[in-house]
Amino acid sequence: NAGVTQTPKFRVLKTGQSMTLLCAQDMNHEYMYWYRQDPGMGLRLIHYSVGEGTTAKGEVPDGYNVSRLKKQNFLLGLESAAPSQTSVYFCASRYSGYGYTFGSGTRLTVV
Amino acid sequence: AQKITQTQPGMFVQEKEAVTLDCTYDTSDPSYGLFWYKQPSSGEMIFLIYQGSYDQQNATEGRYSLNFQKARKSANLVISASQLGDSAMYFCAMREVGNEKLTFGTGTRLTIIP
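The joint structure predicted for all components is written out below.
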């Protein structure tokens, strides 16, 4: 049982480059989320999805786009990376009720 | 708007002692859930315990218990008989029912001293 898998685990980008972070879950969860974690701060919600084909903005959506074409996958895109997007990114999913399952994180550095 | 406050940036506790990590929250919604997560140095987020706003009893999970004081909007985590492996960052979080946003506090770094 893999749970929530994030790829890649580490990435270094140059300012202006684009990339996509992949989150995959094998638990048939309806809800999926992307968070970012910065030093001295808790996790902040970027975007989320309440089901296949749906997406919605969270607390800090600017500079990011997402897609949920398949129920098990939630993609986070950076079209033109900026140093302010240097962070650790976490994906999470839940079925219903309260149980959130987090991935192990992606450490992204934009230089 | 939901808000979580953790006022202890860091704590040092002797091994085998109990430790209380503070968490206060703010919400105008009567239906909400409170969570505690552990983040070890390896970085993953580990779910510890959950308390619903309508739960009559304080939640417990093994050595973890949640001291829920609704009137004071307080949800402190108590770890009994601390172990070296408890050294980590601990985050309190809250979600209002019907709101998909899980709001986190800034965390407390707990260090267990042998």
